[in-house]
Amino acid sequence: MIQIGKVFVPILAAMTVGAYLGTEARSHPAEDRKRTHIAVWVGWSGFEYDAFQAVVNDYNKQQNTIFVDLLSISGNSLKTLISASAGLPPEISLLSASEIPQFADAGAIEILDEICKENGLTEDKYVPGYWDVMQYQGHSYALPATPATIALHYNTDILKSAGYTKAPETIEEMTEMENKITTIKEGKMVMAGFLPTEPGWWTWAWGPFFGGKLWDGKSKITFNDPENLRAMEWYGSYSKRFGHQQLTAYKSGFGVFASPENGFLAGRVAMEVQGVWMSNFIKTYSPTLKWDAVPFPYPKDRPDLKGHTIVDQDIFVLLKGCKHRSEAIKFLAYCESQPAMEKLCLGQKKCSPLRNKTDEFWAKQENPRIRLFDEMAYSKNAFANPKIAIMPQYQAEISNALDEVALRTLTPKEAVDKVTARMQPKLENYLRVLEARRKAGK
Amino acid sequence: MKSKKKWLTILTHGVLISFSCLFIFPFLWLLDTAIKPIGETMKEPPVWIPSKFEFHNFWDAITYGSDKVGYIPFFVYAQNSLMLCTLVVVGRVISNSVVAYAFARLRWWGRDFVFALTLATMMVPFPVLMVPTFTIFRHLDWIGTYRPLWVPAWFGSAFSIFLLRQFFRTIPFELSEAARIDGAGEWLIFKSIILPLCKPALSVVALFAFMGTWNDFLGPLIYLLRQDTFTLAIGLEFYHSKAGGTQWNLLMAATAIVIMPVMIVFFFCQKQFIKGIAITGIK
Question: Taking CB atoms and an 8 Å limit, are A27 and B146 in contact across chains?
Fold first, then answer.
């Protein structure tokens, strides 16, 4: 009888050796040693990645001294942060603009003021809204990749059937429309005019849409200012008007965002706040839907807020302590050139952050409202995620407060006071840590 | 009396079957979604029986995007995952059984203290260790290779050591004594007497190691630097893009293929596995 051990052990040993040799061979491929390799990490995948890979391929072809090794990986921010902390960062990483404070405060990314000046990447070259989001504590910390603005998307058929020929301009008009469009049959909601919880991604922005500020830019949390309180009251009015359970039950019937059952795409919500990317989803999941977009409404007594929008963008950062800094700068400058930027933005179906755009760029855009999204980034009322590293905690506090107001366990006044009281010590602590770091020269 | 027993059996089986249905439901949902057209994947109310059975989703999933630049090399990732699993499973079984033997069967000064210290390492969460271990591997020049992912497996893991130690302690000490009287050394006792009796526990350790490595996302995410070195767990992420939506049917088809090896391993080892779990008291 064959002893199992006598057969099994050599096979296992052979497999182990094979696996070892295989992993070693794959880890150390033959590399093109003639060129300097720079690592660029991005979180894009699918068609977004394809668009950037095409730009990278062009760059790798057009010169023979630098080779860009592009890595697409979800969780790129975490990977970048760990690698930077351990002193082995990539040359360039793609982050979201809202992450600048965390990375800048941690001393992980370079200030680009000089680099921008030397390469002609100055303020006048970029759309103001997109330039502003890259500034932090008086310095440029990033360069734009692909930008986005937010607008109120509306279903023209639903508005028309309710007797409206144009979108609301003020919050009061929107409320009136919602009341008319929202339909409850046999005790169940069957149509919603607008739901502040759909998609519910920018909960921090309701206050700024009413003219509120989340902090004074120095040392004070201002969430309990009258404008933020007004936004909270407006948010709470949905539960009052339609009932929290009714709203929750209705929303629970929607599918995930990227699906034909998305509330807006399925024609079950007439108006929704969404970004420049929404037209892609409409085209994919609800191609017959008739829609348009306008800037989000402003309070009737605050016409000065007209044309407001949230500005956000994916950004390129240069990591401190990277191996090939000057080569990375050359590649960044290439990405910011008009042909490369337009190729990237067209591929990703977004606006370009550059002021100058070619006719070809506009002609090839698939989003019929692309110019609106571009114009909004010029608005003096465009605003971005507040530039403080404790924003994730602040955002969580705001979301909790909104839930409590919706559930009516807190009044709007109590909610804004609670958030302010909870965030103020966190802000003070954060500023203390920053100060200590500054003194220590980090 | 007989009929009472019969009813009790039916009741027990009924309860067990109901619970197994509850557990198998997500898996069936995954398979169901894998063969649906994309438009029916997230419908409300859910579509249970697809209007069209799209079995080609499985093939599409593993060749996803092969006409584009952002192609997912499914078989390369599968190969990487398998190589890594082999190294980790073998390392984990060998190193942990040796260490556990020392803790369970040998008497030495400070043994219980060292064992407690070993167990204490389980209390330290991985995120706390991420940067320090990354720094160590960076100094060893191992970043971008698979070594940070498998070499630690050859130096023991607290959970597996604990599991094996518990099992080793259930084997009568008289067996070792008898072997010693016959002149056997510790290595021979370990290799020829203890290990052959521990197949169930070794299977559990091997299976846990395999599952942990096959499904590990964070480790490869942190340590690997090139696309062609990625594992399947990371590869699955490529089925959705930041603003382009998720190909749910393809993602589920790919996931079904990815979890298949784990299921096959479990299928063949389940007898040993359950025995191991039952004897060591790990539930």
Answer: yes
Whether A237 and A359 map to the same domain: the answer is no
Last residue of a domain, one of B12, B35, B62: B62
Question: Which residues in chain A have Cβ-Cβ distances shorter than 8 Å to B221?
Answer: 73-75, 78-79
The C-alpha angle B272, B274, B276, rounded to 5 degrees, equals 65
CB atoms within 10 A of CB B168: 22
Domain that holds residue A203: 150-310+387-431
Task: Name chain B contacts of A29, Cβ cutoff 8 Å.
Answer: 226, 228
Whether the CA torsion B174, B178, B181, B186 is positive or negative: it is negative
Tokens at residue A7, please? 């057969």
* Number of C-beta neighbours around residue A202 at 10 A: 18
Q: What is the CATH number of the domain that holds B232?
A: 1.10.3720.10
- Do B275 and B186 lie in one domain? The reply is yes
- Given the cut 0.85, state whether the ipTM is greater than it: no
Q: What is the pLDDT of residues A181-234, one digit of tens each?
A: 999 988 889 999 999 998 888 999 999 999 999 999 889 999 999 999 999 999
Interchain contact A287–B (C-beta under 8 A): no
Report if residue A412 sits inside a domain: yes
Subunit contact B244:A47, Cβ cutoff 8 A: yes
Residues B99 and B215 in one domain: yes
Whether residue B241 and residue A49 make contact (CB cut-off 8 A), yes or no, is yes
Tokens 């490529």 appear where? B238
Give yes or no: residues A158 and A257 share one domain. yes
pLDDT in tens, B129-144: 888 898 999 999 999 8
Cβ of A259 within 8 Å of Cβ of B42? The answer is: yes
A8 close to B (CB below 8 A):
no
Q: Which residue of A has its CA nearest to B42?
A: A255
Whole-prediction pTM value?
0.79
- Amino acid code (one letter) for B273: F
